[in-house]
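Running this now, will post back.
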Amino acid sequence: MRTITEDQIIHFISTACKVPSSRIHPHTSLRDDLLLDSVDVLLLIAALENNFKVYLTKEEAEAIDTAYEANYYVQKHAA
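Update: finished.
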């Protein structure tokens, strides 16, 4: 079983979005704070799935709007 931390998720989002990790906290909105459009969010989620070797359902992917939610669903499927 692989342990994934919130810091790893934030670092991944930071790198993928080219935003300093200091600007990302659990309640950072991917759309409002990081200014990602719908396609960018889907690409980020696909990259998270690929990097952390998890698969999210369509409903789970659509529910992700914050770094916290990304962390929650990735960790849920990594366990």
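Residues 38-52 form the longest helix (15 residues). More later if anyone needs it.
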